Amino acid sequence: MNGGMGPGAALVGYPTPAGHQSDLNYVMSMVDELSGILRINQQLTANVVEKMGKVREKAKHLNLSNDELITVVANEMNEDSQNLERENSELRKALEKSEYNKKENWKLSIHGAEILADIAEKMHRFKEQHEADTLAWHKNYRKQLADEREENLNLRNQINDMKAAACRANDGFRQMRRFVTDNDSWHELEVENHRLRTEKRFWKRLALPLIPDNDSEWSDDDDLIDPEEKKREAAKEKERKEKEEMESGHGSEQAS
């Protein structure tokens, strides 16, 4: 039975179909019943062997003829069993039952072997399908991984190109700033431009005294008022207010 249960032992850890499990339970119950019948037959055989041993001992130690030996053994057996016909009938019934159980157990064994073979075949198909699915999954995964790596490589190349372009632009800005800072002629042009703009603003304000300071005329980028001119404008505004106050004071005194 150990050899017959070998394929079933390899199925540990896998789910068994409900129909196969019920068949296996039925087979195991019949195997247990057969084991009980075999134990009874072994006991009966042991009794027969024991009695044959006694006959052999008597034939060995007693100097008897065959008829006398048969008579002595028959008397002893009759003493042990008063109804030999009943025992013979029971033995025949047991033999017939054992023969029937043997045939039924053989059929069950064949059926169980077929079930185990079917399970083994299905497990082989499942293993084959599982390996095929796993290989297909790994192939698809490797393809996706290669695509992602290629895309990441392209992105890294683009980032490196952008960094290189930014470095070149930064270097150009540094060179331009160095050129503007270290070039005396450019500095002189900037100073002259500032002076001309200031002079233009001065003459423009002289030519247009009636335009207030918050007018849109002075909102152009070229009309940038430096701090010193703001101070001068504040001083002029202060003198104008003091003069108006003084004039208003003299006018009130004359009226009184």
Features:
rod-shaped; 0% strand; disordered N terminus; mainly alpha; single chain; 256 residues
Outline the structure in words.
With 256 residues, the chain is mostly helical. The chain is 84% helix and 0% strand. The protein contains six helices and no strands. The longest helix is centred in the middle third of the chain and has 99 residues. The N and C termini lie far apart (144 Å). The relative contact order is 0.05. The N terminus is likely disordered.
Secondary structure: elements and pairs:
Layout: H1 6-9, H2 18-61, H3 66-80, H4 84-182, H5 184-207, H6 227-255
Short description:
The protein is an all-alpha fold.
Query: Which class best fits the helix and strand makeup?
Result: mainly alpha
Number of contiguous helices: 6
Classify the helix fraction into a percent range: over 70%
Largest sheet: none
Tell me the overall shape: rod-shaped
| Head-to-tail CA distance between termini | 144 Å
Order of helices and strands: HHHHHH
Number of strands: 0
Q: What is Rg?
A: 62 Å
Mean model confidence by pLDDT: 77
Uncertain runs = 1-14
Percent of sequence in beta strands? under 5%
